[in-house]
## 1
Amino acid sequence: MKLSWKTLILWSLPILFIGFSLWQGIIVPEQVDLGQNVASSRMTYGRFLEYLDMGWIKRVDLYDNGHTAIVEAVGPELGNRIQKIRVELPNSTQEVITLLRNAHVDLDAHPAQNSSAFWGFVSNLVPPLLLIGAVILLFRRSGNSSGANNSSFSFGKPKSLTQVKAKPGITFNDVAGVDEAKEEFKEVVTFLKKPETFTSVGARIPKGVLLMGPPGTGKTLLAKAVAGEAGVPFFSISGSEFVEMFVGVGASRVRDLFKKAKENAPCIVFIDEIDAVGRQRGTGIGGGNDEREQTLNQLLTEMDGFEGNTGIIVIAATNRVDILDSALLRPGRFDRQVTVETPNSKGREAILSVHAKNKKLDESISIEAIARRTPGFSGADLANLLNEAAILTARRKKSAISISEIDSSIDRVIAGMEGSTLIDGKSKRLVAYHEVGHAIIGTLLQCHDQVQKVTLIPRGQAKGLTWFAPNEDQMLVSRAQISARIIAALGGRAAEEIIFGNSEVTTGAGNDLQQVSNMARQMVTRFGMSDVGPLSLEGQSSDPFLGRSMGSRTEYSEGVATNIDSQIQLIVQSCYNEALRIIQKNRVVIDRIVDILIEKETVEAEEFVKLVSEYTCPPKIKRRRRVLLSV
Ligand code: ADP
Ligand code: MG
Ligand code: ZN
């Protein structure tokens, strides 16, 4: 271990001082050596003199240069048994000795013994030694715990700066549904394995690859797969670890990370969750010169500091590319950017196949069908889905996962755990009307997604649920579709109001109203779907850190703000009127479906549409896929 002597000396000084003090008895007073004469009781000097006068004292042993005496006394007060009593004597030992001699008491004096002095010395030495040992241990711990041979003796060591050797575990085969990203990383592996192919034609190998995409889409997994495939050293650290331990350590961690990487080139440096350090500078609360900013500056410096062809490739992952500092994205740093999207139907099928490999699926199950029914699921959701299904299967003591477990697991992943049903009563009726309100509007509006099922079985926070089957991975949504969604989302409240009256409406619509407001606001401020005109007035206000978008709402004038508000109100009010109209017009069928729903708890799409079509003519059922819209 190579020590930095400056730090060692700096740290040993206080320790030596403590050790020396202990030794000298400054902190812990030296103990009186009383030999074997351990006396349990004590008495005062005055009482001792009284005992002496009475002739009860038989023997006195002096210790501690005559300051302490162990007295053997016998008398009626002591139960006529010889007892050993400890007495603290005044300073004038000579006087005591004279007294004792006059009284003809046995007298002996005991100097401190050499052997006990030795043990005292040793026992005084132990605590400082222990302390020094503990501190050395602390230093080693805070250093690289893997005990790499050239770890320097300093605090700035990321504890998880571990070198991951090509793991046999994860390869590109374990990552599915993100083919473009995979291709990109296969190339990165080639850069590291055969750089000549590129350098011989004058190509500069990129320094950094930024991997971005929503959570759970397999970014970390991809990076691990690169490590598995590349067969080069792989240094992995998570952005949050840079800022985790001590203030002022982040920057030195970055320095160490790159120092280590340079020593081990060719290699890969993987920085997970880079947004934790790489956030836009100068936007935080409390000034710009904070810990994180220094860490980021160091990172930028290090990335500029090595040449493109030294064989180090930095891979960073984030799901918040919008808040990253633009300096990170400049060419010469993370000049390659790879996006991983939430997988489409084909991608989901591939991911499901990967995760189904080690699970026992019933033969009747079609992976393709599951993939079709799970739009919007990320890779992590799908892995979770299959795992939940497997757990459920085990709980039901079945030998293979069947479609029914898959079904419940999909519902569970989307909407949370199943709760126990409400007891029959007014609230249950109200929830039933609320849900049927959503469902009937969803069914009758031409542009709305098909109803999948209506249920009164609670899940997560929701007391009842209406499931809709959206169009396959729809990218573009029309104005009519958004309006239809708003009307259907208001259907629950509309039904409550019509059936139970204005004063009986409940808080159950809170979630719906939130969605409605969001959709209406976006129609006005982002999609140009109102009389305000085709203007984009607000960015995605998704920054929880008061970051860049702070103050974006002042991009328009007061007048426009008022106009926006009135347009939102106009949209929501006209949609609500439409919802009320549809509920009113279909009151008869709604009553009937509610009765059935209360009895059966769940009404599936076919039955629902059949019932509705006995009174009107709703659109035909399309494909069966589920996603939750309303609660
Ligand atoms: P991210 O880092 O993007 O948030 P992870 O890589 O940590 O997501 O993914 C979490 C888990 O989800 C993985 O361990 C894996 O089991 C599963 N997963 C996610 N994406 C995929 C994918 N494309 N292929 C296979 N499994 C995936
Ligand atoms: Mg991750
Ligand atoms: Zn609702």
## 2
Amino acid sequence: MKNKNLIAIYDYTREEQTRLLDLAEEFEREPVQNILNGYVVATLFFEPSTRTRLSFESAANRLGARVIGFTDSASSSVKKGESLKDTILTVSNYADIIVMRHPRDGSARYASEVSPVPIINAGDGANQHPTQTLLDMYSIRKTQGTLENLQVAFVGDLKYGRTVHSLTMALTNYKTTFHLVSPGELKLPSYVKTHIKEKDLKYHQYTNMDEAIRKADILYMTRIQKERFSDPIEYERVKNAYILNKELLENAKENMKVLHPLPRVNEISEEVDANPMAYYFRQAENGVYIRQALLASILGVK
Ligand code: CP
């Protein structure tokens, strides 16, 4: 995996993904290792982030690397009109690897085509979020003991939710049955459903979440992505479509875990946080180990 970009989850084979999950387990057992001493990691965030940026920076710091970057493109020369290409070419002089989040679909792929150093996509528009997918897979494997033959329910904004797109594609390697719960206008895009169909797997679509909750081993809640709507009235219509509460979990399987890439707005009531099925803050913690595995592998030290 040395120097290999990670732009979409399917850029890495199932075997490469498994290797990263195994390596993340090693980092969870021993998170502080001075194996990236002398390396510089750049984090370029053209869009807001808490978990992805800070867990990458925590991962780099715990492995002895230095971190440079910006959290707001308005504080960089992009504000003066500098192109993405020129920004990437410039930063590649200062860093060994670039972690980039950008609001435009396809921007990470473009950056990888012009960059002399590896690019990790930390989310590009409504397209892909492959490092989130790896930590989601890690969380699923850790809580269920396997990734095979699971019933996975996705709830919320399946149209604009990039974490849903990446994770669905990844789970098609594991005989998953998909339960897709969304308002009619926020259904999973057909190009993602094509990945499911190509693997001869089943998906069921719902507008109500009760039945999907009863069947699920994993309940993957998502935020309605306000920032992707062109019409604010349309957002207002769907913003409260799904709110998970304690009562709804009463009919869930015992092994079921609730995941959410976070941030949440109101789609999971805070009363759920104390329920043993709630796993989303542990899921965010797992992001550090997966990102340690990615940095170490792509920089060629593991
Ligand atoms: N899950 C996730 O991408 O969170 P942030 O937007 O806070 O990075």
